[in-house]
Write a structure and sequence with these properties.
Number of domains of chain A: 1
Helix content of chain B: over 70%
Structural class of chain A: mainly alpha
CATH topology of chain A: MetI-like fold
Shape of chain A: globular
Distance between the termini of chain A: 35 Å
Strand content of chain B: under 5%
CATH architecture of chain A: Orthogonal Bundle
Number of helices of chain B: 10
Structural class of chain B: mainly alpha
Largest sheet of chain A: 2 strands, antiparallel
Number of domains of chain B: 2
CATH class of chain A: Mainly Alpha
Distance between the termini of chain B: 39 Å
Oligomer: heterodimer
CATH superfamily of chain A: MetI-like
Number of strands of chain A: 2
Number of helices of chain A: 15
Strand order of the largest sheet of chain A: 1-2
């Protein structure tokens, strides 16, 4: 026993065993089961073990699937662009324009606190803003910009993307800020001494050095948006759909095999997207 | 100090707008939850009252709010403790290569990026197919760990990447056993980060929705209860509940930040005087 404990490999394995167990039971087995069930057959009341490709055939044969996947990518792309611009600007401001570490930490915390509060509450809190008689409409009316309330503020694609940006910009700010703080300030001075102006420093020095942070933020935002089903349902008032909603609708109808097939296609899509993004960054080095 | 460039002021405005964007809606429902008795879901305020908060305490027709709060709180603590312990062990183990370490690393990343609904669906299927009942403290608990553990581990990886190994070597040279080194050298050094891991563990669990949707069984956690309310409650009582949970979350964050601050102060005060001794 003593010898065993002394062996570093054994002790490492022992120490990761709880982690491995949790991931095995609650990640690997569930995914394996989803793969299996995606080949099963469903009746109205139960699911029957089988091995048939009907669920996939139906999925790829239905035009709804393509619309819904297109929607999912659309949300992901627009949200990504918005969170990137906002997140980068905020991180840049914190890292290069705030001069004391105390203030940097304080303002950074101010940005991250909403992350630790409830997403659902944060979605609900848009209702008084965007509703038909909400703050946005009544303000615009009182300014005389519009006569009739704008209908597409709440329960629309606009609201969905607004909520995504509201919820997920932090996931851009944090990794970008983290990489920016590690940029050697003398590089920027060197660029300035060599005659670069602010825009050139930003474009040729800071952005290339911040790429790993941007990539990590991108992975977070893209996967969160692609896997979402609540925000889309809540903010679109059930008028738009993405893949997540397709799955959750099937689940609600107890059509587990069909939900599983869709889930597998979604998972593959997400993993392929990540694999492409990971070509640009080595996560372990960036921690 | 050199004068601030013009871009500083522009970016300051941008930052202020961003903060307003982040907090504005939450503050608005905070205000609206004090809506008078006849008031609706938006402005104008029809008087100021605590009516909707009383409503929350009395009316139980909307569901079992306090029961779900209690469950969420207990679940949050369970997830927090397990996340801290498992993340520290994982972080320590990952300092060396071991067979399967890169597979496990990719599993951790998968666990982080996998769409939550797959966990919900998969764990739900796993329990139903193996004849077990889904319950918030078993299937719900495990599903939430797949979300909190990757965060905890990534923090621990970052911590150990910056960890100066010479402290451990010094302890070993002085004859400390591996356990003593861990207990008296490593753990005190990484303690402030553990507060961070604990904060992630608790709050992510307390607010988690998607992964518990199909895995919590007949007893709802608080976010599920709130989500249920959004479909059938259209009065400011929803805002009152939102305000209360947000205040609770803020209190929890405040407690963790205070603990971190106190721990740092104590460490600064009680730090070793080695190197400053009499010469």
């Amino acid at each position: 026993m003593k010898k065993l404990r002394g062996n570093p490999v054994i002790s490492s394995l022992l120490m990761v065993s709880p982690l491995a167990t949790v991931l095995l039971i609650f990640l690997v087995l569930p995914i394996a089961l989803i793969v299996i069930v995606s080949f099963w057959r469903a009746t109205e009341f139960s699911i029957i073990p089988a091995f048939e490709f009907d669920n996939y055939a139906f999925l790829f044969g239905s035009p709804v699937t393509y619309t819904v996947f297109f929607n999912t990518f659309k949300y992901a792309l627009i949200t990504w662009a918005c969170t990137l611009v906002i997140g980068f600007t905020v991180a840049y401001y914190l890292a290069f324009h705030i001069r004391t570490l105390t203030w940097q930490i304080a303002l950074f915390l101010l940005c991250t606190i909403p992350f630790w509060t409830s997403n659902i509450i944060r979605m609900i809190s848009w209702i008084p803003f965007l509703g038909r008689n909400g703050i946005a409409n009544s303000t615009l009316k009182s300014w005389g910009v519009i006569d009739e309330p704008i209908e597409w503020l709440l329960f629309s694609d606009f609201a969905v993307i607004l909520a995504f940006v509201h919820l997920y910009t932090l996931f851009m700010v944090v990794p970008i800020f983290n990489t920016m703080m590690r940029i050697d300030k003398s590089l920027i001075e060197a660029a300035r001494d060599a005659g670069a102006n602010g825009a050139q420093i930003l474009w040729n020095v800071i952005i290339p050095l911040t790429k790993p942070g941007i990539m990590i933020g991108t992975i977070f935002v893209v996967t969160l948006v692609m896997g979402d089903f609540i925000t889309v349902r809540f903010m679109s008032g059930s008028q738009s759909a993405n893949v997540g909603r397709l799955i959750s609708n099937d689940i609600a109808l107890l059509q587990y095999p069909s939900a599983s097939a869709t889930a597998i296609v979604l998972l593959l899509t997400v993993l392929i997207t990540i694999a492409i993004l990971l070509r640009f960054v080595d996560i372990r080095k960036e921690l | 100090m050199e004068p601030r460039p013009r871009s500083f002021y522009i970016l300051s405005c941008f930052f202020a707008l961003f903060i307003l964007f982040l907090y504005g809606p939450t503050i608005t429902i905070g205000i609206l939850s004090f809506q008078g008795e006849g008031g609706g879901l938006t402005f104008p305020m029809r008087g100021v009252s605590l009516y909707w908060f009383y409503d929350l305490f009395e009316q139980q027709a909307v569901g079992d709010i306090w029961g779900s709060f209690r469950r969420s709180f207990v679940l949050g603590l369970m997830v927090m403790v397990v996340t801290v312990v498992v993340s520290v062990m994982g972080g320590l183990a990952f300092r060396r290569k071991f067979p399967g370490s890169s597979i496990l690393f990719y599993l951790i990343i998968t666990s982080l990026v996998i769409p939550s609904i797959l966990i919900s669906l998969g764990v739900g299927l796993l329990f139903s197919q193996s004849g077990l009942n889904v319950h918030w403290s078993t299937s719900g608990f495990g599903s939430q760990l797949t979300w909190t553990l990757p965060f905890g581990l990534l923090i621990m990886f970052a911590v150990f990447n910056r960890f100066d190994k010479s402290y451990e070597e010094a302890a070993r040279d002085l004859g400390a056993t591996p356990w003593q080194t861990l207990r008296h050298v490593v753990l005190p050094i990484i303690a402030p980060s553990l507060i961070g891991v604990a904060l992630f563990g608790f709050t992510l669990s307390y607010d988690e929705f998607a992964r518990t949707l199909l895995t919590s069984g007949s007893y709802n956690t608080l976010p599920l209860e709130i989500y249920g309310m959004t479909t059938n409650v259209t009065s400011p009582v929803l805002y009152a509940l939102g305000t209360l949970t947000t205040v609770f979350s803020l209190m929890i964050i405040g407690v963790f930040l205070c603990v971190a601050l106190i721990a740092n102060r104590r460490r600064a005060r009680q730090g070793s005087d080695a190197g400053k001794g009499e010469i």
